[in-house]
Specification:
By secondary structure, the chain is α/β, with parallel strands linked by helices. It contains 14 helices and eight strands.
Length: about 290
């Protein structure tokens, strides 16, 4: 099982623990992730609010680099990267005018032939939960989490084709394999305000604060995410949310790959569990699910 790996900017900077844990999990499961050489930013939000063609050309350039590796499947972990790569493919497959204009920019023909998968999809639907169950050596019993998908992973559904739009379940199903209890809650796909993180912080604090409050109200001990932008807002901004709204949240925000890694018996440091603002280590020690390696 081999994929061209597109980490994206966040996983090489503010979300290194996501990159670390993804690679460790892939290694443990025999999934080969080969990083695309000389990849460039997918454009995320800034590109598509600045110039539509640029927002397509940037991800297409990366997909062409993957194609040069003789790879017709790309794995990515960032929900924003996943969204931009999938949207670019959609336009290149279905819109001849956009395809012609983008091809002029990138200097090569491309018809959207490189398949894009989120690593969550690879674990659940390609490697498979049944196979994963047989690899779990450390049951994470006693953990109660809120699986937070964010607004990009499932939208728009005709393009992402990943999970149910309003009631996604892939991450919940994955947690159950680890003996982790996912809570039922209505904020699975609410926006955290990701793209406003620097420009309109007050909006981010309100949106992210509402998500933390709902997770707390439903009894979650931690929040599990599949997006570095969501993780940053919920983790990094938590102290600001506490101050602004007079709250006392102390909710760890983990990547699903980190919990899968623990279930596979991988040492906490290799999974970047020491890199969070709100440390998950006290909770994990209390629940006796840390691997001593």
């Amino acid at each position: 099982m081999k994929y061209a790996y597109f980490p994206g900017c966040s996983l090489h900077s503010t979300a290194k623990e996501y990159d670390l844990s993804t690679k460790e999990v892939a290694k443990a499961l025999g999934i080969e992730l080969i990083e695309i050489p000389d990849w460039i930013c997918c454009g995320a939000t800034p590109a598509h609010i600045t110039m539509h063609l640029l927002s397509l050309a940037l991800p297409v350039k990366n997909l062409l680099k993957a194609k040069e590796m003789d790879s017709f499947e790309v794995a990515t972990c960032c929900a924003a990267c996943f969204s931009r790569l999938k949207i670019a493919n959609h336009f290149m497959q279905n819109d001849s005018i956009h395809r012609k204009n983008v091809e002029e920019i990138v200097g090569e023909p491309y018809k959207g032939e490189v398949k894009v998968r989120h690593f969550l999809d690879i674990l659940v639907n390609v490697f498979g939960l049944k196979n994963l169950t047989g690899k779990i050596t450390n049951k994470l019993s006693g953990l109660k989490v809120a699986c937070y998908y964010g607004c990009l992973l499932t939208r728009p559904p005709e393009i992402t084709q990943l999970d149910d739009l309003e009631e996604p379940h892939l991450m919940d199903d994955l947690m159950k394999v680890l003996n982790v209890e996912p809570v039922k809650w209505p904020y699975k796909t609410e926006c955290c305000g990701a793209s406003f993180s620097l420009t309109k912080t007050d909006i981010v604090l309100k949106l992210s604060g509402d998500i933390l409050q709902m997770a707390h109200d439903e009894g979650a001990q931690a929040i599990v995410v599949a997006c570095p932008l969501c993780q940053s807002n919920l983790d990094l901004r938590q102290s600001m949310i506490n101050k602004k709204f007079k709250k006392n949240f102390n909710i760890p925000v983990l990547y699903f790959t980190q919990l899968v890694g623990l279930g596979l018996g991988i040492a906490p440091k290799k999974l970047g569990l020491d890199k969070h603002i709100v440390s998950p280590l006290p909770l994990l020690k209390e629940r006796k699910v840390l691997v001593d390696k």
